[in-house]
User: Which sequence fits this backbone?
């Protein structure tokens, strides 16, 4: 059993390689750039959606206010022929 | 990078802990370096949400352990699906732990190989107790279990380790 035990004394503390902090910094900066890009894309998508909605609503409004909305729909009169 | 000064001071204090713990789990320098990078990126992302319910050290231990266990899982999954034969020899091929003292290298490699085959919680309990040399109280806090439960976990882990080593020496 003597060989089957582990203890702290069997290990040396390993020094961290010097390049590691720079690699971590790079990864974090890449992550931050991604987040910025994502938030810009979300804002752009929201603005586009807003414009499309405003367009649809204004089109609907102008239709409601036009004479066309009051015009008789000939297809709705087909019950007259029954 | 925001709060670089604060992050750098956390890195200076805990990089050795994270790197050495990753080495104990992954038993390979390259994987441990990759894991250390990923752990610190996670720390950077989550540090603002850190509440002082536990100490910073305990929190960093938890992040490192969970990350290393995830790495092992995904590595095993990949190898199991691609090359089932290589999976069996994986431990021997990849073993590259620079921290093991030369006089006990062979025995320690054998034991660490056997520890690698234990269930996750038993593996963690043994690594933290035997290699990291933490107290029962600290380990219980990291694992979020009671000290009594940790005692039985450790005795199960030791019994299983004994069995695994016996089985390995026979085959």
Assistant:
């Amino acid at each position: 059993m003597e060989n089957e035990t582990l203890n702290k004394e069997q290990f040396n503390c390993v020094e961290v390689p010097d390049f590691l902090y720079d690699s971590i910094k790079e990864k974090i900066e890449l992550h931050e750039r991604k987040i910025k890009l994502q938030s810009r894309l979300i804002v752009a998508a929201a603005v586009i959606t807003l414009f499309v909605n405003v367009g649809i609503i204004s089109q609907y409004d102008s239709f409601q206010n036009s004479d066309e909305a009051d015009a008789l729909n000939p297809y709705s009169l087909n019950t007259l022929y029954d | 990078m925001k709060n670089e000064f604060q992050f750098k001071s956390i890195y200076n204090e805990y990089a050795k802990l994270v790197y050495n713990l990753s080495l104990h789990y992954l038993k390979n320098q390259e994987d441990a370096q990759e894991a250390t990078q990923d752990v610190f990126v996670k720390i950077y992302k989550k540090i603002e949400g850190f509440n002082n319910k536990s100490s910073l050290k305990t929190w960093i231990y938890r992040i490192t352990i969970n990350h290393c266990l995830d790495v092992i899982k995904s590595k095993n999954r990949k190898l199991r699906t691609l090359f089932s034969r290589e999976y069996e020899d994986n431990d021997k091929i990849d073993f590259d732990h620079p921290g093991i003292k030369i006089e006990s290298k062979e025995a320690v490699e054998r034991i660490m190989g056997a520890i690698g085959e234990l269930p996750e919680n038993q593996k963690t309990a043994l690594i933290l107790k035997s290699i990291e040399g933490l107290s029962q109280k600290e380990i219980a806090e990291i694992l979020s279990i009671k000290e009594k439960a940790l005692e039985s976990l450790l005795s199960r882990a030791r019994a299983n380790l004994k069995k695994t080593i016996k089985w390995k020496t026979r085959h």
